[in-house]
Amino acid sequence: MKILVYRWDIYPYDDIIMTLTKQGHLVDVLAFPIENHIKDSAFEEAFLNKIHAGAGYDLVFSLNYYAVIGTICNNLGIPYASWTLDSPLLSLQHSSIFFPQNYIFLFDYKEYTVLRQKGVPHAYYLPLAGIQLDATYELTVEPSFDYEISFVGTLYDKNRYDEMCRHLPDYLCGYMDAALEAQRNVSGGNLLSEMLNDEILTALSQYATVCNGTSSLEELRMHFATSVLSYKSAADARIEALNALALTHDVHLFTTSKGEQLHKVHIHPAAQYHTEMPYIFHHSKINLNLTIPNIENGIPLRTFDILASGGFLLTDYRQEVCKQFENGKELVVFDGIKDLINKTEYYLTHPEERIQIARNGQKKVQQLHQYKNRLTEILHTIFNL
Questions:
Q1: pLDDT digits (tens, 9 = 90+) for 311-331
Q2: How far is 247 from 262, CA to CA, in rounded Å?
Q3: Are 28 and 54 in contact (CB under 8 A)?
Q4: CA distances to 55, 160, 267, 317 from 281, in Å
């Protein structure tokens, strides 16, 4: 099968391209920036030139959905498979998601159910997968632990909420602060969009231009909840968790963030995805996953990568996590800061149990959550292979 992969700057592409090639497919790659996911004349020209020069692609593939690709592929009669790793995607608000040639695989079960309820004909739930470790990359069976507690990821400490509150009236900032506080007390859910009623959205629209399109209240609600409040909520949660643990433990953060609000946390540069990151996961006694509220019922890529690397994972709750993995056997779920601290203390003082859970989690990913499993499922769904 001849497959054109639209590639942008995100980590899993190397694993995807390698897996498709190993499965015997002829893979071609287009790396051209998309400035507007709906209508982009420069990209359309580059994409069509690639299609015509390729002489017969059976499939176009991308991570996340692009309406501009979906529209062209539908017009040409070429199946387009997109696999999301961000949620929610504003690009999924476009009418092209209903086109018969577009197959959308969603890692967030909540977003999958929304598209199915809308009547999207080719919407499927598909979790993400674990990093493919190079054959030359050795992970010792009995790791020597270089780190006590590690978190690999951004703090979202530069977010639009902090910028906006400098220009908004006090009552609007106060209301959004209350929404953030309510979200902080919820485990595994997202209250932010529900907290933004029509009156608040109408007031907000007078102070900020937030998106292109119709600027309907529903569009404004989605934008503020996802692009503004959710990132602020994630920033607060991550800073609070890391600071709380660092009071009594050795905590390491690998990030592009400055971490100015952190205390006693060891801050390292961002880890290289395929080389440094698996080592950190494998050689940390405890790895944290702190999920952004935007992901309402999906499993972040970090979860699979930690487990694939043989690391012990302590993660916040999402329903799908407990469907795909056995809590307490393959990973451990915490509920709130107090539970996070208690479970951290427990598993640091029970190393044999902790290491066995890490082994179980790695085995589960190796058996069921590899890219070869996921890509085979995508091709079977589209072509019944």
A1: 999 999 999 999 999 999 999
A2: 11
A3: yes
A4: 43, 30, 16, 20
